[in-house]
Design goal:
With 106 residues, this protein is mainly alpha-helical. It contains 3 helices and 2 strands, in the order ββααα. It has a domain of 72 residues. It has a two-stranded antiparallel ribbon with strand order 1-2.
């Protein structure tokens, strides 16, 4: 049987080639998922004129992971070093994207 066919039970059907889509890079870890989510969250808040605080990031991270804002549920955003690094990366990224409009997160 030619390689473009695959067996499904007793029948053979042509393989459907999936078109290449422009997708966001694959996220390999929880840290990457959290970083991307909190980055989008910060952009949304700032578009509304709200500067996100540490507590807002921590609460949003809990909603993402636990679907709850209970402070007993800890995430990486509750780690002061991780949160400081995230904010530093976001600040430098924001500065690089729009040098005329310096915005500080946190």
């Amino acid at each position: 049987m030619p390689p473009e066919f695959e067996f499904l039970g007793e029948e053979a059907s042509p393989r459907q080639e999936q078109p290449a889509l422009e997708e966001e890079p694959r996220l390999d870890s929880y840290a990457e998922v959290l970083t991307r989510h909190l980055s989008h969250y910060a952009q949304l808040m700032m578009s509304k004129g709200i500067i996100p605080t540490d507590e807002m990031f921590q609460s949003e991270a809990r909603r993402l992971l636990f679907d709850s804002e209970d402070q007993w549920n800890q995430t990486m955003a509750d780690n002061p070093e991780w949160l400081a690094q995230f904010q530093e990366e976001q600040n430098s990224r924001t500065f690089l994207e729009s040098p005329q409009e310096t915005r500080k997160i946190g």
